[in-house]
Amino acid sequence: MTLPVLTTTEITRVATPELVLTAVRHALIAHAHGRTSVPPPVHLEFPDDGDCHVKAGWVTGTPDFTVKIATGFYRNPAAGLPTNHGLVCVVSASTGRIRAILDDQGLLTAWRTAAAGALVTHAMSRPDAATLSVFGTGEQARLQVAWLARLRPIDTVLVHGRNQDRTRSLCEQFHALGHHARPAPADEAAAADMVITTTPATAPVLPAGRVRQGAHVTGIGTDMPHKNELPPALFARAALIATDDHQQCLDHGDFGHAVRAGAATDTSDTPAGLLLEKPVERPDGAITVADLTGVGALDAALASAVLGELAPQAP
Amino acid sequence: MTLPVLTTTEITRVATPELVLTAVRHALIAHAHGRTSVPPPVHLEFPDDGDCHVKAGWVTGTPDFTVKIATGFYRNPAAGLPTNHGLVCVVSASTGRIRAILDDQGLLTAWRTAAAGALVTHAMSRPDAATLSVFGTGEQARLQVAWLARLRPIDTVLVHGRNQDRTRSLCEQFHALGHHARPAPADEAAAADMVITTTPATAPVLPAGRVRQGAHVTGIGTDMPHKNELPPALFARAALIATDDHQQCLDHGDFGHAVRAGAATDTSDTPAGLLLEKPVERPDGAITVADLTGVGALDAALASAVLGELAPQAP
C-alpha cells in the first residue's frame, strides 16, 4: 500500500476551526491531567543558521501518535525560499503502522498554537473584556486575533509592532475582518483588557506597570531559554498563572524567567487545561497570566483529528 | 511540489551492494573522525508491547540529513501484521527542505546493519579466515553472511540457533547461495575463524573459552542496555576491540557490559571506522572483537546515496 501524503489543500479543506478548537481543547485538558506522552525533542544544528527539531507526542489512549519534523534555515529568504519546512507523520498507536504524512508546511502547528492561545485567553479573560492588544506583527499576531474572535466578540484591536509598515498592514487586515484596529505604543497596548504577546523577543516587551487590574495577558512567543516576552514584575502582580506545560515553562518559558527572578514560586502555576473544563473563578480586579510554550501532544491530537476526517476508514 | 514517496521497489532497484557498502564505509570512517552529528534519539512507549524510536543523523558537510522513524509492535504477528514499520525522511542540510520520504519498510536499516557488520568483520579477520559461524537465525543472520560473502570467500558457514527448524531452513538458504552450511552447537560455532552474533539475547550466547586464538568476533545484536550477546571474558581475551560508537557501546553495547564487569577498561576500544581505512595490523594468534550498536549517521549516508541515484537533479 502506498503511503498517503496529504497536502495543505486537503488539510485546509477538513481542518475547520471547530475541528481544530475541539482537538486542541481536548489535548490541553488531557495534558493537564497527565494523560499524554511527550518525550524530549531531538535537535540538530547546521552551519549557515539552520536547525531541525523533531517532536513526538501522544494523547494516551487515542488511536494515533505523531512525529513532527520542523526545520528553520534562516538564510533561505535571501535565496527566495521559505525559512521553515516540515511535515507531520501520523502513526497508529496500536500497530505502529504509519498511516499518513501530512505535508502541512507548518500549517497545523500555526493553527494549534493559535487555537491554544485563543482558548486559554478566552477562558481566563473577564466575560466583559472588550479590547484586545497584540504585541508583534507576524503570522501568530494575525492568527491569535482571528481565532479569539471565533470565541468571543472583540471590540477594538490594538497592534504594537516595531515595524510601522507591518503594523499598519496588520491593522488593515483586522479592519477587513470587521474589527476596529489601530497601531498603539507599548504603554497603551499594555492597558487593554486582553493582551497577547507573539514576538520572538529576548527581553520583555510588555511594560508590567501599565497592565490594568482585571486584565488578562497571554504570552505565546517564548519557546527557547534565551527568549522572554513577559516581565517577571507581571507575574508578581498576577493572581492566577497558567502554564501549558509546567516543566517546559519553567525550563524555557516566561514563567521560568519570573521564577528565577524571584517574582513567582515554582509551584504557583496552574495547568492551562484545567481552566478549560469549567468557568475560571477570577476575583474582580485580578490580573491573570498564561505562559504557553507549545505542547507536542497538541500536534498529535490535531493531526489525528484531521486524518480522521480525510481517511475515516483506515485502521 | 508534491513530496516524493519512494517505495521499496524503487529503493531496491538503485541500492546495489556497491552503493550500500560504499556509503556505509564512508559513514563509519566519518563517524570515527567525529565528522557526524547524531543527537540522542526520541523514544515513545505504548501499552500492548509497542515502541517507537526516532533517530536523526548527519554526516557533516554532506547535502542531506535524515530522520528515521522505526516502530516495533510485538503483538502484531498475532494479528497477521508485520512487527516493524518505519520510514526515512531525507532532508536538505542546506535549506531544510524535505527532499523525499523513503518508505523502505526498514530495508535500509537492515542493509546498513549488514554492511557495517560485513565491512568490520572483513577488515578485522585474518586474510585466510575460512569458516564463519552465525549465532541467531533471523534476518540479520542471513544478511550478515550474504554481505560478508560479497567481500571475501567463505568456505563453511556454521549456524547456531535455538529453533531447529529455523536453523535448518537458514542452512538451506546458505546452500542455495553456494556455501557449505550446517547447524552447530554453541561450542563448535564459537570455534570458527569468524563469528558473528545476531541475537536479541539478554545473557551471553557465546562461550568465550571456545573462541580460538586468531579468531574474530563481531556482535551486532546488543542495541539496548538489557541485551548482551558477547561475554565479558571474551573482551578480556581480546587484543583489539572495535566499537562503532564509543559512548553508545559503553551505554548499551556488549563493550559496556565488559567494562562494568572489569574485563576491559573504558578506553580500550578503537573506533571501527579507523580500521576500514588501511589493513588492520593484528598479531598472529590475537583474538579481535567488534561491538556494533548501530549509528544514525549510517542511515543518513545510505538514504542520501539512494536518493542521489533516484533523484540526482533535485536541489
Mean pLDDT of chain A: 94
Tell me the major beta sheet of chain A.
8 strands, parallel
CATH topology of the largest domain in chain A: Rossmann fold
Any low-confidence stretches of chain A, pLDDT <50, length ≥5? none
The tally of strands of chain A reads 15
- Quaternary state reads homodimer
β-strand amount of chain A = 25-35%
SSE string of chain A: EHHEEEEEEHEHEHEHEEHEHHEEH
Number of helices of chain A: 10
In the CATH scheme, the class of the largest domain in chain A would be: Alpha Beta
Work out the helicity level of chain A.
25-40%
Placed side by side, the strands forming the largest sheet of chain A appear as 10-9-8-11-12-15-13-14
Largest interface: A-B, 43 and 43 residues
Q: Which CATH architecture of the largest domain in chain A?
A: 3-Layer(aba) Sandwich
Broad structural category of chain A: alpha/beta
Describe the structure.
The structure is a homodimer of 315-residue chains. The first copy, chain A, has 315 residues and is an alpha/beta fold. The first copy, chain A, has two domains: 5-108 and 297-310, ornithine cyclodeaminase, domain 1 (2-Layer Sandwich); 116-294, 3-Layer(aba) Sandwich (Rossmann fold). Chain A has ten helices and 15 strands. An eight-stranded parallel sheet of chain A has the order 10-9-8-11-12-15-13-14. In chain A, helix 2 packs across helix 3 (107-124) and helix 2 crosses helix 10. The longest helix of chain A has 18 residues, at 107-124. The first copy, chain A, is globular, with a radius of gyration of 19 Å. The mean pLDDT of chain A is 94. The A-B interface holds A 2-3, 5, 7, 37, 39-46, 48, 50, 52, 54-56, 58, 65, 67, 69, 71-73, 76, 79, 81, 84-87, 89, 91, 93-98, 101, 103 and B 2-3, 5, 7, 37, 39-46, 48, 50, 52, 54-56, 58, 65, 67, 69, 71-73, 76, 79, 81, 84-87, 89, 91, 93-98, 101, 103.
